[in-house]
Design brief:
about 700 residues; alpha/beta; OB fold (Dihydrolipoamide Acetyltransferase, E2P); Rossmann fold; 9-stranded mixed beta sheet; 6-stranded parallel beta sheet; 23 helices; globular; binds adenosine-5'-diphosphate; binds magnesium ion
Length: about 700
């Protein structure tokens, strides 16, 4: 007897060739086949009498075949199959192109159902290339209803899938429910078996939508539940309670007053949330999300100061040595006159601040000092997580541009466990920072295991970067403009287009651009080249030359470093701008306008599509990364947002990441459930489902 667990090879109508095809898309058993959902429907539900059909309609008619034959049109060299269909209201012609085998399936005298578009031909109205099925063969599946259309990969046609899924519909009642009853009632959801049956062969559009909602709900709910459980687990980590007494509060206030600018409100609130978290003996796990230039580093420094002042060590990790170097300089600049020790550790450098001066220090020497607690604030790259680095009393880790690190790298920094007096093991508080501005609701899902602080406000007096979409014919004007800027002492970026997934072509386009600029356009200027195929050392060398001003124009692929500060760069030219997401273009643009000079960004595109025009216009108008991310979400869907695509989200969850209502409901329900029953003891089926789901979806 057929069950949900039966292998597909046990299905009588499925031969070995199809077993292979199905396996290629991950379908092994009946259950898998039931979970292979259609992505849309052909609406053939409008069933009419032949006498009532009208020109242009998509309809279904049912009747008897009076006559059917193949005809060859000599003029157009085409095979036509023509059939006359009759019902009690009239007769009409059906016509198929290049499907001569049709006469083998359909014969005169047979009753059929046909669905297709009504067109006008010489002899009157006819139905063109209709889907068909024999009447009397049970419930319809290819015509006269909402007909499911599946992704047709590996030679699996929708028609084949329908024919093989339809007979399994009687098994849907055996699909076990895993959601709590109360939740189903509360959210007015279909039961799982109803949803599966209606997603394939819906009674009507409303039910199709309801089925889709239930199935999308499941995926998002499981994501949320996973994230919330991760968060709970994290909160079992004990951490050092940072005391925040009057003395420390005063020190922080003095520090903030000493800055040459006032904090933005967003910086103030975020710093405060972090400091509040640090005062708990539960390990903080917070994400600081803020647009490029919103001043995340300073928030990191303020919170670091609180920890250092209460006698503990702080580590600050950045993805590249240049960025680490810049953070070190920033820390020296801001903290230089204070009474604690700051050091920099990268694979090639070890520096420390000594009596107000930066000084090279032997690496081994530095490691010893870190271990003895003689360094209070350690800034660096991946070097910080090497075995050889051990801390004296690390209580706070900060990770900049967190998406550039793997989860295990972040975990390693976290695992530099320290012991406090009573022998209790503690884990450092963790602050991750990212400049990927993703809309808040989306962040609650993708980063649902973290607490979130958002810098949604830019420092005042920041000059807006003048952004222009430039027509290809005006390229020379842009080159001229760049030349003039460089003559004024500025520097420029040229970003080359994203060609496709393989970065080989991208590298080629960057090289070509580099050749053209250095030989033809600007033979007297110094041009640098940066792309993904260079060794890290070469990349660093080139970046350093650009930072120091040795290079005038840097030609780069999208590997251009995040977060680096080159205040002297004032122009950016982006080729093939239509190929990048808005959020990414915005990130690139954030590389200029970081100094006191009015800055410019020129967007080039060959594309004439209206969508491109609309997207680039959004970039010209808005300098708010969050707004742009929202737009990207609307225009291109969540898959294009950095960080989401890589996370391996399932299709439905992915599709519903733009569905704010669903995100909210799933999150609320997940929180409610975990609050009631953290171990999910009462819901073993849910636990099992979650386990299977998290295995399938790789959460980075
Ligand atoms: P990001 O958030 O992109 O990492 P940074 O922390 O590098 O931004 O800050 C960008 C620049 O803005 C730095 O030069 C920093 O000193 C400056 N900055 C930070 N906060 C403020 C502020 N409140 N007012 C003015 N400038 C600020
Ligand atoms: Mg930064």
């Amino acid at each position: 007897m057929l069950t949900l667990e039966s292998k597909i090879s046990e299905l009588s109508a499925v031969g070995p060739a199809y077993v292979k095809k199905l396996q290629k898309v991950g379908i092994e058993n009946v259950m898998d086949l039931l979970f292979y959902f259609p992505f849309r429907y052909d609406d053939f539900s409008d069933v009419k009498k032949i006498g009532d059909v009208e020109l242009g309609e998509v309809v279904s008619v049912k009747g008897k075949i009076l006559d059917i034959q193949n005809i060859r049109t000599w003029k157009r060299k085409m095979n036509l199959t023509e059939a006359m269909i009759e019902d009690e209201s009239g007769v009409m012609k059906a016509i198929w192109f290049n499907q001569p085998f049709m006469t083998r399936n359909l014969r005169s005298g047979i009753n059929v159902s046909l669905s297709g578009k009504v067109v006008y031909a010489q002899e009157g109205l006819q139905i063109s290339n209709p889907s068909y099925e024999l009447l009397g063969s049970g419930q319809s599946m290819h015509t006269a209803r909402l007909v499911p259309i599946y992704h047709e990969t590996e030679g699996l046609s929708s028609k084949w899938l329908r024919a093989h899924i339809k007979p399994l519909m009687k098994l849907t009642k055996d699909v076990e429910e895993f959601l709590p009853n109360e939740l189903i009632k509360n959210q007015k959801l279909f039961s799982l078996s109803e949803a599966i049956s209606q997603i394939h062969f819906p009674d009507n559009e409303e039910k199709a939508l309801k089925a889709k909602r239930r199935l999308a709900f499941d995926e998002l709910f499981l994501v949320q539940l996973y994230m919330i459980l991760q968060k709970k687990k994290w909160q079992e980590n004990k951490a050092v309670k940072i005391k925040f007494d009057e003395k420390i509060e005063k020190e922080i206030k003095t520090f903030v007053k000493s800055l040459p600018f006032t904090l933005t409100n967003a910086q103030r609130t975020s710093s405060w949330s972090i400091i509040k978290d640090l005062q708990k003996n539960v390990s903080m796990n917070r994400l600081l999300e803020g647009d490029v230039g919103s001043g995340k580093t300073l928030v990191a420094l303020i919170s670091a100061l609180a920890v250092i002042k209460s006698g503990f060590q702080v580590a600050f990790m950045a993805p590249t040595s240049i960025l680490a170097g810049q953070h070190f300089s920033e820390a020296v600049k801001r903290f230089g006159c204070l009474d604690f020790k700051i050091a920099l550790l990268t694979s090639s450098e070890s520096l420390m601040l000594c009596n107000g001066k930066e000084k090279n220090i032997n690496r081994g020497e530095l490691l010893k000092k870190i271990k003895k607690g003689e360094i209070n604030f350690l800034i660096g790259t991946h070097s910080l997580i090497q075995e050889s680095v051990s801390f004296f009393n690390l209580a706070y880790s900060i990770v900049d541009e967190q998406h550039r690190f793997g989860i295990d790298q972040r975990a390693k920094l976290q695992n530099k466990v320290i012991c406090i007096k009573d022998g209790l093991e503690t884990v450092p508080h963790l602050l991750s920072m990212t400049a990927t501005p993703i809309p808040r609701t989306l962040a609650l899902t993708v980063y649902g295991d973290l607490d979130l602080s958002v810098l949604d406000e830019m420092p005042k007096d920041r000059k807006k970067i003048i952004t222009k979409v430039v027509a290809p014919v005006n390229l020379n004007l842009a080159y001229r403009f760049i030349y003039d800027q460089i003559k004024k002492g500025r520097q420029a970026f040229v970003i080359c287009p994203l060609i496709d997934e393989s970065d080989v072509l991208e590298v080629k386009s960057a090289k070509q651009e580099y050749e053209k600029l250095s030989k033809k356009i600007y033979s007297k200027l110094k041009i640098g080249l940066l792309h993904g195929k260079l060794k890290q050392k070469e990349k660093t060398e080139t970046m350093k030359k650009f930072v120091s001003g040795e290079i005038d124009i840097l030609v780069s692929t999208s590997v251009i470093e995040v977060g680096v500060d080159i205040p002297n760069a004032s122009v950016m030219l982006i080729e093939g701008a239509d190929r990048f997401g808005l959020a990414q273009l915005h990130q690139f643009r954030g590389r200029v306008g970081r100094g006191k000079y009015q800055s410019f960004c020129f967007l080039f595109t060959d594309s004439t599509s209206a969508t491109t025009a609309r997207r680039l216009k959004a970039l010209v108008k808005s300098d708010n990364g969050f707004q742009l991310a929202e737009q990207d979400l609307k225009i291109r869907g969540p898959g294009e947002l950095v960080g989401v695509r890589q996370s391996g989200f399932p299709d439905l969850a992915m599709a519903s990441l733009g569905d704010v209502e669903l995100i909210k409901s799933t999150r609320e329900e997940a929180i409610k459930l975990v609050d009631k029953d953290y171990k999910l003891k009462k819901f073993p089926k849910l636990v099992m489902k979650l386990r299977k789901f998290t295995k399938k979806v790789h959460f980075e």
